[in-house]
UniProtKB/TrEMBL annotation:
PANTHER family, sorted: ALUMINUM-ACTIVATED MALATE TRANSPORTER 10
Keywords: Membrane, Transmembrane, Transmembrane helix
Record has Magnesium as a keyword: no
Identification of the protein by name: Membrane protein (TIGR01666 family)
Membrane-topology descriptor: Multi-pass membrane protein
Primary localization: membrane
Residue span(s) of domain Integral membrane bound transporter: 416-538
Residue ranges occupied by any Integral membrane protein YccS N-terminal domain in the UniProt entry: 77-350
InterPro entries xrefs: Memb_transporter_dom, YccS_N
Subcellular location: Membrane
Transmembrane segments: 21-40, 46-62, 74-93, 99-116, 123-139, 145-167, 458-490, 496-514, 526-550
Length: 744
């Protein structure tokens, strides 16, 4: 068990990292953007102007997320324009309630529907929805509506100015934080793989965790790719960017190398059951690598804190000695076991080389003026967002998840506003605000945010009540409100429950300054939150529900298509040899991304009510088959790139053709929901019966110099023949499984 001092040290280290995080710095920016206009306007006697600037800055801040800075600037700018327009329209919505409700619903739908243009567009949409809802909370008495709207836009520009200034002061902050998180996730990924080879482990749970970590890693890789590659395009060469790009490549390779070396757990269990010493030896190696990645994450560029290689060298020496002893003892009796151990050792040696290169690059070596990335090729790794207006028309259908979410949200907002006015709540817009913040396109996320929002509001309300009874000083309320605001926006992305707690505290402290009946405010805040959360949850169940089984088929299709394209590129490279093309690399990246997306879609489906988890076991099996297929492809890809191979034989081409045919039939079956053809049994398929030559010739003699050459030939034959049979078997299993599943 960890000592008390170690726990304190770890907590202190986490606190330091939190204070250095981009979430904390963004929260500080928001606090400055909100408080400075208020303070200045109070000083000069123009509170209405200060409030307008404050609202504009606050509503434009959601677009300030990690990513390419140019995209971030445009996101904040478009948010400012949208909130200005919405505030202008909202200012004239002074109709009777019966007429206001449908107009409110129409505006909510239109703003939410902007999300069809991707993640950053969804943040701009969220800003617009905030502005729409909160336009009911404030009625300017000193300013004309158009003046108020223009000041709202100016507030957005004020926040943009602060964001640009902060970026100029600390341009490396978000890049370094993303690397820090990527180091830690990579370490966790390696550790989880190491635990999988241990005895008596819950492999189903660990495998699920492995897929989750892999999905997070690929998300981080996508963000880093956007920052590093697009920054080079816009600003030219940079020594810092060049080195970080090389480190990024090594981290991607560590993930892909791990995935490209799948473990046959049945064979490994049998081998380790007879030789348990290998479990500890290999796990020590992997755990030490993971530990070194964590130390690197904490050390930054301080070379003095980098872990030494001596411990890993010692572990490698021990494993090599044990493998040599195993080979000497078993001879040719368990040659497959020897090759398994040897391949595992070679995999770890590759990871060690990548780890050493990361340390070397962080040591600020002189890179000269070498251009590390072909700019034209780099563009192909970035998926540009399509902003064609036709995208709106193509998504204007009940088949679109965004369309259904927008319609569901607008209906719920109308119901919430009607209830708030009918029962004459103190602040009915709080109901709408809760709906806007909680409701998400997926059931699982909406459910978790509903629970966290309710719990956070109750805790925040209880804490605020205590403060209100103990403190009567408005200046203290103001200071506590600013502190709560900073903490709230620092934590809202990482821990929504804690964020909701401090948001409630912020609201109460602000009201405590301007209203004497703050206890009543707390009561209504809790009540309105409960109503808004309840409406959101019920709406997800009954208003155009978007269950996972409705979208999982499309995700499976995308993953199979990407794997098929990667297979085609591998086959082409195997036949033509030469330099690895950019098309090859892009197809590999797409295969990893789509398989990760499939895992995420399945996780969302698994969070839904049991009654809606149609064919969950079969779909999980299909997800695992897709992951396994990609692992096998990656393994094959790595081998043929790093080893000389013979000319592609007719048998090889036939196998590739049959595997591709199976994948084509899988796609056809998915397209038709349920295949009209009878499931194909690859075990009874005539082609599958054809056996390739055994990879271990009988009566071989392991001696002299020929042994080294023979080993290489055996390893090549082992991997190629096994992978072809395995890929064909997996594709056949996918086809049989898909043919049995009804997705509609």
């Amino acid at each position: 068990m960890k000592s008390y001092s170690q726990i304190i040290f770890n907590n202190f280290r986490e606190l330091l990292h939190f204070l250095k995080s981009t979430n904390f710095s963004k929260a500080i920016l928001i606090a400055i953007a909100v408080t400075v206009p208020i303070l200045l306007s109070v000083r000069w006697g123009h509170l209405e102007i200060g409030l307008a600037l404050c609202f504009g800055a606050f509503w434009s801040s959601p677009s300030d997320v990690s990513g390419n800075f140019r995209h971030k600037k445009f996101g904040i700018l478009f948010s400012a324009l949208l909130v200005m327009l919405v505030s202008f329209i909202g200012g004239y919505l002074k109709f009777e309630t019966w007429l206001l409700i449908p107009v409110l619903g129409l505006l909510t739908f239109a703003i939410a529907f902007i999300s069809v243009y991707g993640f950053r567009a969804s943040l701009i949409s969220f800003s617009g929805l905030l502005a729409l809802v909160l336009s009911f909370a404030h009625e300017s008495k000193e300013l004309e509506i158009y003046e108020y709207a223009l000041l709202i836009g100016a507030g957005g520009l004020w926040y943009l100015l602060l964001a640009v200034l902060w970026y100029r002061i600390n341009p490396k902050a978000q890049t370094e934080e993303l690397f820090w998180e990527t180091y830690r996730l990579t370490a966790e990924f390696l550790e989880t793989r190491a635990k999988l080879v241990g005895p008596k482990m819950d492999r189903l749970e660990l495998q699920s965790k492995l897929y989750e970590i892999q999905s997070k890693l690929i998300e981080h890789h996508e963000t880093l790719r956007e920052i590093l590659l697009l920054s080079r395009k816009s600003s030219g060469r940079s020594s810092y960017q060049a080195k970080r790009l090389l480190i990024f490549v090594e981290l991607i390779d560590m993930l892909e190398t791990a995935i490209a070396n799948p473990v046959n757990y049945d064979k490994m269990d049998a081998l380790f059951g007879d030789h348990p010493e290998f479990i500890e030896s290999f796990q020590n190696l992997i755990f030490e690598m993971a530990g070194q990645l964590r130390i690197i994450a904490e050390s930054g560029t301080d070379q003095n804190k980098f872990p030494k290689n001596s411990k890993l060298v010692h572990y490698f020496g021990k494993v090599e000695h044990e493998i040599a002893s195993f080979r000497k003892e078993t001879g040719t009796e368990d040659y497959e076991g020897f090759l398994m151990l040897q391949n595992l050792l070679q995999y770890l040696e590759k990871q060690f080389e990548k780890l050493k290169k990361i340390k070397w690059l962080l040591g600020n070596p002189d890179m000269g003026s070498v251009d590390l990335v072909d700019q034209a090729a780099a563009k192909r790794f970035i998926v540009a967002q399509d902003y064609d207006p036709k995208l709106l028309l193509s998504n204007f259908s009940f088949r679109s998840a965004i369309f259904k979410h927008s319609l569901r949200l607008s209906v719920t907002v109308m119901i919430g506003y009607a209830l708030g006015n009918f029962f004459d709540f103190q602040n009915p817009y709080w109901i709408l605000l809760t709906i806007i913040v909680i409701m998400r396109p997926s059931y699982g996320l909406t459910k978790s945010r509903t629970k966290d929002r309710i719990i956070g509001t109750l805790i925040g309300g209880a804490i605020a009540t205590g403060f209100v009874f103990l403190i009567q000083n408005p200046y203290m309320f103001g200071a506590l409100g600013v502190v709560s605001l900073v903490i709230a926006f620092s934590m809202v992305q990482k821990n929504y429950r804690a964020g909701a707690t401090f948001i409630t505290l912020t609201v109460v402290f602000v009201y405590a300054i301007i209203r004497p009946d703050v206890i009543t405010v707390i009561q209504y805040r809790v009540l309105d939150t409960l109503i808004g959360a309840g409406l959101s949850f019920v709406a997800m169940l009954w208003i155009l529900p978007a269950w996972g089984f409705m979208e999982i088929r499309e995700q499976i299709k995308n993953s199979v298509k990407a794997n098929r394209a990667f297979l085609a590129q591998i086959a082409r490279y195997y036949e033509q040899k030469g330099k690895v093309t950019t098309t090859y690399k892009v197809s590999r990246k797409e295969a990893f991304v789509e398989t990760s997306n499939l895992s995420s879609a399945f996780q969302r489906m698994a969070q839904e009510p049991v009654s809606k988890q149609k064919n969950l076991d079969k779909i999980y099996e299909l997800v695992v088959l897709n992951h396994t297929f990609l692992s096998s492809l990656a393994s094959f890809s790595t081998f043929i790139q790093n080893n000389p191979t013979t000319e592609a034989s007719l048998k090889f081409k036939n196998f590739i053709s049959e595997i591709d045919e199976n994948l084509e039939q899988v796609l056809q079956a998915l397209e038709n929901s349920k295949s009209d053809q009878a499931p194909i049994d690859s075990h009874n398929n005539q082609f599958a019966k054809e056996q390739l030559p055994s990879f271990v010739p009988k009566n071989i003699e392991l001696s002299s110099r020929v042994d080294i050459k023979l080993e290489r030939e055996l390893q090549e034959a082992h991997l190629v023949t096994e992978q072809l049979h395995w890929l064909f078997s997996l594709s056949g299993k996918m086809l049989r499984l898909v043919s049995k599943i009804e997705f509609d």
